[in-house]
Amino acid sequence: MKKITALLILALVIALLSACSGGADSPSGTNGQGTSAPDTYKPGDTASNTDADTAAITNGETAVPGGNETEPEQVKGSDGLDIRNYGDMCEVRDIGTFTGTELVIPSHVDGVPVTHIEEDAISNDTMKSLYIPWTVTSIGEDAVSESKNLETVTFSEGLIGIGLGSFGGCPKLKTVTLPSTLERVGQSGFTACTGLTEVTLNGNADVNKSAFEGCTALQKVTFADKSGRPYLLMSSAFEGDAALTEITLTEGLDTIGSFCFSGCSSLGAVYLPASLTKIEANAFAGVGSLKIFYAGSEEQWQKITAANGNEALQNAEITYDYKY
To answer: Which residues, at least 6 apart from 32, have a Cβ–Cβ distance to it below 8 Å?
Structure first.
């Protein structure tokens, strides 16, 4: 009798445990939508779609790109935009019926974060200002290019990548302040923005080939990050920027690419980090009288490898051990 009673109790315990764990393998709260983007989603070369890059919704609270503890208020976007909702993220696909002058990208659609602006998505001739919210991590190829009347762009912390030609050929864009979370400016990202006068990068972002080439009114460029995070300055990044008079490059930079400042005939003050080890061919070709403020010692300066076509460096006035 005792054996039968023990068996009955054991069976009851197993049944109770099975009932408690029965739904563990079934997704909940998805409304029939998967948690990953479909095969048709291609964010391009501007950002990887990792958990760190994409804001996630949990119990009504949003994980903020860039690690901020306080979530900004959700941003209501402009009407008419064509935005696709994938269930766990959204992307702006087209300008849609928008015809206004102030374009605001929404941070969320039905509670789902907008994380990407698709290639060729919002280029238009009526837009004068553009606001990009903190949820957007990547901007696709030619997304805003050739917007002839665009004057101002507000970039929020959280942006990681600016794609190939994203803002190229926007002649009325005056100043650009890029967030500390930015990791890369794609090839020709701002090329031929002929009205651009000042650029500030608050993070040590890679500046790809021809990123600011042909910005003929550009006068000042500042890398403001003091963290020392490694970054790249690739070939022709500022080539032909004849009005450029000052550039500040901070610790983390190892190489200045070929033709990087070629044709920057007005370039006078250059602030260079002690981390610099190589200056490629013609990086300073066509540059006149230089004043270099170098963070390292004279001994360190002598160890930097400078290729041909950089005669401006040989005749430069150099201040060593400069403190930023």
So the answer is: none
